[in-house]
Amino acid sequence: MLPLKHPMPDNPTATKYTWDDMPKEQVTDQLSRRLITGDKMMLAHVYLKKGCIVPLHQHHNEQITYILEGALRFWIGSEDAEPIVVGVGEVLHIPSNVWHKAEAIEDTLDVDIFSPPRQDWLDKSDDYLRLK
C-alpha cells in the first residue's frame, strides 16, 4: 500500500507561543487580554476583574469561551434572558451573530477562541468594550 499524499502549503510552518511572552493589552481598568492569531482563528486569554461588564454585543465570529479561573455570568439573546453562569472547567459556545453580555462574578481568566479572528480586537476598533 502506498502512503497517502496530503497537499501542503508551499512553506508550512508551526509557531510555538508562551502566554507570558505575549504582550498584554490593557483594554480598560477591569479588562486585559493577550492574543494569538492564525489565518482562520484567534485564541485569547482574557483577564476580567470581579464586576467587569462586557456590554451586550454581537459579532460574525463564532466564539468558544473556556473558563480557567473564576466565573462569568452570560446573558444570551438579550439582557432580559435568564443568565447562565460558566465556571472553572466549563465551556460556552456562542454561534455567529448571537447577542450576548457577560459579567465577571469573580476575578476571571477565560480562554476565547474566535473563528475567523476578531478584526476589531486586532485593530482596536472594539469601542463597545472600551466605553467607560
TrEMBL record:
Which ranges carry the Cupin type-2 domain?
45-110
Gene3D superfamilies linked to this entry: Jelly Rolls (2.60.120.10)
Question: Would you tell me the protein name for this molecule?
Answer: Cupin domain-containing protein
Organism per entry: Hymenobacter segetis
